[in-house]
Amino acid sequence: MEIKQPTRRIVTGHDAQGKAVALFDGQVTPHQKRPGGNAISMLWVTTESPADIDVTTDRTQIEVGVPPPPNGSIFRIVDFPPTSGAAPVDHHKMLIGMGIDPATQGYMRHANTHRTRSIDYAVVLDGEIDMLMDDTEVHMKAGDVLVQQGTNHAWVNNGTKPCRIAFILIDAQEPAAWKKRWNK
Q1: What pLDDT is stored for residue 1 in this prediction?
Q2: In what order do the strands lie in the sheet with 163-171?
Q3: Which helix (H) or strand (E) holds 93?
Q4: What is the DSSP letter of 181?
Q5: Cβ–Cβ < 8 Å for 2, 40
Q6: Per-domain residue ranges of the chain
């Protein structure tokens, strides 16, 4: 997959005198971290809510999977390669690689299907992609925005070019639908 250019990330905070300053200003290069060839640029992680905004260390050093930490959040950019010609995905291994317990998952329409106990905000920055849900799908293109509330989904790039999406995931309560549908 063609790796996208790095993203300039600027993180602000305060100096010892309480003045606003840029704590970090530099390039974040996408890394291949997940099965399927997705390249991820981790931008920020919180582990608490309300968020601690006195942090002066780089919170991207916190190890996380796809879901946000309990009471936390994640901000990342993901580059999805086209799926044509890609090797088949082992669903169980894919979930483990994403930091998701396979026992927490429900219906699997596609090998990339997963869900997280989070509210997810997604903005397609470049390219096009399909988001498959249980019985339907939504085609998204650059400029489209998604608010996802803990639903089953799979991202599938049926195009010929990579698709870049910015994601913000915030820990949430488990939706009642999970209990109804999967008898938890």
Answers
A1: 46
A2: 31-32, 39-46, 73-80, 163-171, 118-126, 145-149
A3: helix 91-97
A4: H
A5: no
A6: 30-182
